Automatic annotation (TrEMBL):
Keywords: DNA-binding, Kinase, Transcription, Transcription regulation, Transferase
Record-annotated HTH crp-type domain positions: 142-208
Any one GO MF annotation of this record: kinase activity
UniProt-listed SUPFAM superfamilies: cAMP-binding domain-like, Winged helix' DNA-binding domain
Keyword Transcription regulation carried by entry: yes
Lineage: Bacteria, Pseudomonadati, Acidobacteriota, Terriglobia, Terriglobales
GO cellular component: cytosol
Domain of life: Bacteria
Protein name (database record): cAMP-binding domain of CRP or a regulatory subunit of cAMP-dependent protein kinases
Domain Cyclic nucleotide-binding residues, every copy: 8-123
Length: 230
């Protein structure tokens, strides 16, 4: 069975994987495109092959922060299979890539028909709940430098690239921090030789060192994801 590049799809048996692929359509995913919008009921589910998306919460008094990130390890919009509820987050492509898109109605039928698929999706959704809780605590309790290191490592894991097209403004939004704070801590990481930070681009140059600089949330959330596919 040929690998698709999506870890969840590649863990399925060949017959189930082929059934999904026969109903899916390849799509490009440019940066900053919304896949699902706040308060709207999702119409499609995405399996990313490259790139990463952020799940972003917006506060009524202004400001926003990322509470989840999904890439090649799972599916985007899996919560729509649990019921037709409006989205509580904005789901936006943070790192450009490509994926497979399938209508929610089609995926619902496959979800109910195939126990193997249902089990994989439910495991992934449970992992996302656990990761979201960890990230929420991280955003509240950990210093900006450690959070930025954690975020960059996670983005690289999810997207499959260590060269990340990101602006200061976008990083600040994801971390729930000020742009000046992001500029300051990115400068610290760059002077330490851990990243190469230029306008609109961050490249991880020393993964081991960046991992040491990250808070423990990186190891915890990575373990949650890796456990799905052991």
């Amino acid at each position: 069975m040929a690998a698709t590049g999506n870890r969840l799809l590649d863990k399925l048996s060949e017959p189930v994987q082929k059934t999904i692929l026969s109903s899916a359509r390849p799509v490009d995913l440019p940066a900053r495109v919304h896949l699902h919008r706040l308060h709207e009921v999702p119409t499609h589910i995405y399996f990313l092959l490259r790139g990463a998306v952020s799940l972003v919460v917006h506060m009524s008094e202004g400001g926003s922060a990322e509470v989840g990130m999904i890439g090649r390890e799972g599916l985007v919009g899996g919560d729509a299979l649990l019921g037709p509820a409006p989205s509580t987050v904005d789901t936006v492509v943070q790192i450009a890539g490509a994926g497979l898109r399938i209508p929610v109605k089609t995926m619902e039928s496959l979800f109910l028909e195939h126990e193997e698929l249902r089990g994989r999706v439910l495991e992934f959704q449970q992992a996302q709940i656990n990761i979201s809780g960890q990230i929420s605590a991280c955003n509240k309790l950990h210093e900006a430098e450690a959070r930025l290191a954690r975020w960059l490592l996670t983005a690289a894991d999810r997207s499959g690239t260590e060269a990340l097209g990101l602006t200061q403004e976008y990083l600040a939004q994801m971390l729930g921090s000020q742009r000046t704070t992001v500029a300051l801590v990115a400068g610290v990481l760059q002077r330490a030789g851990l990243i190469d930070y230029r306008r609109g681009m961050v490249k991880i140059t020393n993964r081991e060192g960046l991992t040491a600089a990250a808070c423990t949330c990186y190891a915890i959330t990575r373990q949650i994801t890796d456990r799905l596919y052991q």
